[in-house]
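Design review, sub-item: ligand-bound model
Attendees: FS, YL, KQ
YL presented the inputs for the NDP complex:
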Amino acid sequence: MTAPLLLAWITAALLLQLALGIGFAVWRHSRKPATTSQGAGDATVPEAQLAAARWREFRVTRREFEDRAHSQCSFYLAPVDGGPLAPFKPGQFLTFSLQVPDNGADARAITRCYSLSDAPDPAHHRITIKRVAAPPDHPEWAPGLSSNHFHERVQVGDVLKVKAPSGHFFIDADASVPAVLIGGGIGITPMMSMLRWCVTEQPQRDVHLFYGLRNSDEHAFKAVLEQLAQDHARLHLHVVYSRPGPNDVAGRDYQHRGHVDVELLRRTLPHGRHGFYVCGPPALMESLVPALVTWGVPRQDIHFEAFGPASVRLGDAQTREAEAEFAEPVEVAFQRSGRTLVWNGADASLLDFAERHGLAVEAGCRSGGCGSCETKLLSGSVRYARQPDHDVKPGHCLLCVGTPGSALVLEA
Ligand SMILES: NC(=O)C1=CN([C@@H]2O[C@H](COP(=O)(O)OP(=O)(O)OC[C@H]3O[C@@H](n4cnc5c(N)ncnc54)[C@H](OP(=O)(O)O)[C@@H]3O)[C@@H](O)[C@H]2O)C=CC1
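KQ shared the predicted structure:
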């Protein structure tokens, strides 16, 4: 081959490669279609997703307890660089990287996610954290690492590493559909964000807030909620105490006694279509969310965010069908842990599966947003019921929202 011909050939080859590369990047950005992770993949990441994935420093500008028991504390955060805050949709969360002292020894980095607890405000973000004690039936278990770190050590002036807001649990902007916000315990936090946004941006929208908690000691945002209900005729406040204290007065401190359940919703909500938003402790999620399906609420009108280890299983026909399709037993090997286990479709995600078998796996948001459980996928394919918010690195997968699409070898 002559030198000019060789040069022309190389140039043509380079141009072709460039054209294909750009074409692929545009296709991926506009359609974002992937619902599986494979052992290898595309390395191009859209700029907006890169920005969301970056850590940014925030200073704590204020802290404030929200309940009489001082078990729930709000932290106000402003960016150290003085730039504008990233926008968010009410219901979304922030991801934190925290250096937490490990049993009094060296600090170790952990990742945790906390819902934003106020409507978007150009001056700051706000989160509200409940101190998680050891369970009463297991006082020997460790209390919540991150929540106790925040309560005991994080003070005004401290700087924290935070990722931009994310998550697919947020209020639908369609004001014609009344919103039913159901917050159990600290699950009130995303509801506060949605509620404050609604009363400001959509004052004509009917909003029914069901707040389930034990009693007035733990009643967060009590004065704020009562004031909002007084000022906004379309806000219908239902506070539900499960264990009222001796001085708690029905009709003044709370409207209902017991748990938030479908029976209560049936009795109190007017007829017609509603959008349901649910966030609370595992027991509430596991009973209430499937009960809404059984009651006949269409799947697209049920939105939920689960706290804690168990993912919510809807039990509706569509979910059962999808689960049955992939219920064939397959082997899942966890290389670092040295365990090979059989997946039989009993778990909602690979994370639940790993935890049920006692494997220690890092996890943050548990909803595909923060990337804490991202693991190298050495072979096989992982399925996602919907595209995760976190941009999964090529050759990796997310355990918290993934299920096996075939036999797997994972690095974890
Ligand atoms: N610190 C934080 O900010 C974070 C906390 N979490 C998690 O949140 C969870 C606990 O939330 P917490 O605020 O302590 O909740 P609580 O345990 O205080 O429960 C809140 C209310 O829900 C009621 N409840 C219990 N079971 C049901 C049910 N089946 N249906 C309806 N209502 C029910 C409780 O009643 P009863 O009196 O019967 O118990 C109580 O009134 C923990 O799993 C924690 O790890 C997760 C992330 C962040």
